Amino acid sequence: MDTRRAWWIWGTGVFAYLVAITQRTSFGVAGLHATERFDATAAALSTFTVVQLLVYAGLQIPVGLMVDRFGPRFMITGGAVLMCAGQVQLAFASSIPEGLAGRLLVGAGDAMTFVSVLRLLPIWFSGKRIPLLTQLTGQFGQLGQLLSVIPFVALLNLQGWQTAFLSVAALSVLSVILAASVIRNFPSGVEQDLPPTLRQTGVSLAQAWKQPGTQLGLWSHFTVQFAGNVFILTWGFPFLVSGQGLEPAAASALMTVFVAVALCSGPFFGRWVARHPLRRSSLVLLIIAATAAVWLAVLLYPGRAPFWLLVVLVLVLAVGGPGSMIAFDFARTFNPVSRAGTATGIVNVGGFVSALLVMFCVGVALDALYASGYSQGELYSLDSFRIALSVQFLFLGGGTAAILFIRRRVRANMAAQGQNVPPLRVALARQRRLRKQRRDRRRDASAGRH
């Protein structure tokens, strides 16, 4: 474990995930172009991303089972092939059904990538490295958003729709070549278990789902991740440009800030989770509260929000990405390696189900407000966005309630095994005492030397 070859394999997997994120987010920044190309309404435009994420979410559990059976190499390579085909289809699409077919393939290929890359970690690395590597996998992958926001948008504006989408399709060809030639499912010389039978696969799925720790990961992912995904994939750019009146260049800059903050905060979360494994859910709840507070401030602000408040919004939403990765640590620590892919797939369903539901609801609300005359002939008016985006609070509230309920079950199970989680105020007081004792010892040692 932790060999040079392991790092090469992980790096190749991360590159494949980066390319998958590029394919996933490319349509979001092309939303205004897609409206013109397909003559699409807001609901029809949101359907593109909803279909993509619906396929992604629906395949997570099957993909988790398949990666446990066939291995990460096959799944990562196959995913890249599907995404390449989907982007080529979208490049030549001239109607909504043709475009949807392309996004369906992209969603299927995307679904096969992340879970498979995470499945490599417990095979090639020691347990102490996995929380940080999980975060780094997610955050390095988010660099794919930068490829969407900067070079892809530039190609889209300068060379047009077809050239831009064919260019990102070429990245998946590179992923196929690298994944097939570099990634290996197991270190050489390691005895491999026989692939599970169909019956064993069903038992593994049932056991992973019944585990309260898996359910805690599912609801954590459901509640933390969707706000950032809704913003970066579909409604963020139209909200900033049409709703808040920013120039497209300024909106793109904020999207770049989103990616940069997600990258910088990921290692912090990884180290924090490794040091405080009993406080992971508290950090999840803190992120949810911050997300609700900043959206409330932006949506209730009279008139267009000041630029500094929009920056704060982007900063908080960006933290949600690495924050949602905590959910996978629940799946890892409460399940054996043999069903790690299955548990990870179950958890990964959560954030994408909530994201696609919110995206679709926002699109339907915008169309309804436009048809009723409320938006005064402007589909993406600020007042309409205020109402449509408020649907997020229902998901934040419902998810928080589920997390609190399941956390009690998890902690009850831990207490039955002799592992009690003290109240947060008690734990903080203990940490303060320990810090004070360390300072006193250092001071005494310093005084003794003099």
Automatic annotation (TrEMBL):
Coiled coil (UniProt feature): none
Record key words, sorted: Lysosome, Membrane, Transmembrane, Transmembrane helix, Transport
Catalytic activity: L-aspartyl-L-lysine(out) = L-aspartyl-L-lysine(in); L-lysyl-L-lysine(out) = L-lysyl-L-lysine(in); L-alpha-aminoacyl-L-lysine(out) = L-alpha-aminoacyl-L-lysine(in); L-lysyl-L-alpha-amino acid(out) = L-lysyl-L-alpha-amino acid(in)
GO cellular component: lysosomal membrane; plasma membrane
TM region positions: 7-23, 43-67, 74-92, 164-183, 216-237, 249-270, 282-301, 307-328, 340-365, 385-406
Membrane topology per record: Multi-pass membrane protein
Chief localisation class: membrane
Domain Major facilitator superfamily (MFS) profile: residue ranges: 1-411
Matching InterPro entries: MFS (IPR011701), MFS_dom (IPR020846), MFS_trans_sf (IPR036259), MFSD1 (IPR052187)
SUPFAM superfamilies referenced in this protein's UniProt entry, alphabetically: MFS general substrate transporter (SSF103473)
Cellular localization per UniProt: Cell membrane; Lysosome membrane
Gene3D superfamilies, A to Z: MFS general substrate transporter like domains
Organism superkingdom: Bacteria
Molecular function per GO: transmembrane transporter activity
Function: Lysosomal dipeptide uniporter that selectively exports lysine, arginine or histidine-containing dipeptides with a net positive charge from the lysosome lumen into the cytosol. Could play a role in a specific type of protein O-glycosylation indirectly regulating macrophages migration and tissue invasion. Also essential for liver homeostasis.
Family according to the record: Belongs to the major facilitator superfamily.
Subunit structure, as described in the record: Homodimer. Interacts with lysosomal protein GLMP (via lumenal domain); the interaction starts while both proteins are still in the endoplasmic reticulum and is required for stabilization of MFSD1 in lysosomes but has no direct effect on its targeting to lysosomes or transporter activity.
Name of the protein in question: Lysosomal dipeptide transporter MFSD1
Lineage of producing organism: Bacteria, Bacillati, Actinomycetota, Actinomycetes, Micrococcales
